Structure to design on (235 residues):
């Protein structure tokens, strides 16, 4: 394998940043999982990141996810982080670790149906559009509890937590309240004691703002550019 010193250095820097953010927040490093967002990136770069110990990868296109999953090591945990069409759920139901982008009951019902066929429980996160950006997917904060109550009765789905994509800002501090609100929402909903719902995952924070997200309680950060460099969509 040809190794790439910049990826190694990037991972080292990110690791240091996560540790520092955990320390500032009085959290343990083990509470945070780094998901390497590898969309558009070639297999060899994923293999390199794997070589450095990363086992969680995130993709946003079903076809690309399937292709990479078939080729790469079977102990990888694959996270579907992009908008998911119902007719494609069947292609990842066998193996996906967690679907981060559930924002409708009908999508959840399809995931449940495919989970049943595959003979497994599928972990999902409800995607929340905290900042009510018109261009983004996800449900608004005030709709989340109702959606979760409806999903909670589906037998082959586990509602594992909440996910958000924060606004693109130049100063990551501007997203602190977005992350804080998502965490408070998770705590509030857990306190309602809904049958089958004990959420523990908070998927929030990307290259631009993962340190703030960790300070605010992220359990899963989704980092692409800071690991792999800029994405080029003309591959
Ligand atoms: C692409 C993507 C990321 C990673 O973004 P970077 O800014 O490259 O770290 C994280 N989450 C989602 C949902 C994405 O689509």
């Amino acid at each position: 394998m040809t190794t790439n010193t910049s990826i190694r250095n990037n991972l080292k820097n990110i690791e240091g940043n996560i540790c520092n953010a955990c320390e500032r927040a009085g959290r343990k490093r083990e509470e945070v999982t780094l998901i390497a967002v590898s969309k558009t990136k070639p297999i060899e770069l994923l293999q390199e990141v794997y070589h450095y110990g990363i086992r969680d990868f995130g993709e946003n296109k079903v076809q690309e996810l399937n292709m990479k999953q078939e080729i790469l090591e079977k102990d990888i945990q694959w996270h579907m982080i992009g908008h998911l069409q119902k007719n494609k759920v069947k292609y990842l139901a066998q193996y996906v670790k967690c679907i981060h982008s559930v924002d409708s009951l009908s999508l959840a019902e399809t995931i449940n149906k495919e989970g049943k066929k595959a003979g497994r429980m599928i972990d999902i996160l409800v995607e929340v559009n905290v900042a009510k950006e018109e261009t983004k997917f996800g449900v608004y904060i005030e709709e989340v509890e109702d959606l979760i109550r409806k999903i909670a009765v589906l037998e082959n789905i586990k509602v594992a937590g909440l996910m958000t994509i924060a606004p693109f800002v130049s100063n990551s501090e501007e997203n602190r309240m977005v992350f804080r609100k998502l965490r408070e929402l998770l705590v509030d909903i857990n306190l309602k004691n809904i049958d089958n719902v004990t959420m523990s995952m908070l998927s929030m924070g990307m290259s631009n703002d993962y340190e703030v997200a960790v300070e605010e309680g992220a359990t899963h950060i989704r980092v692409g550019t800071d690991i792999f460099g800029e994405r080029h969509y003309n591959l």
Notes: The CA atoms of residues 134 and 195 lie 32 Å apart. The beta strands are 33-37, 56-59, 77-80, 98-102, 122-127, 157-163, 201-203, 220-223.
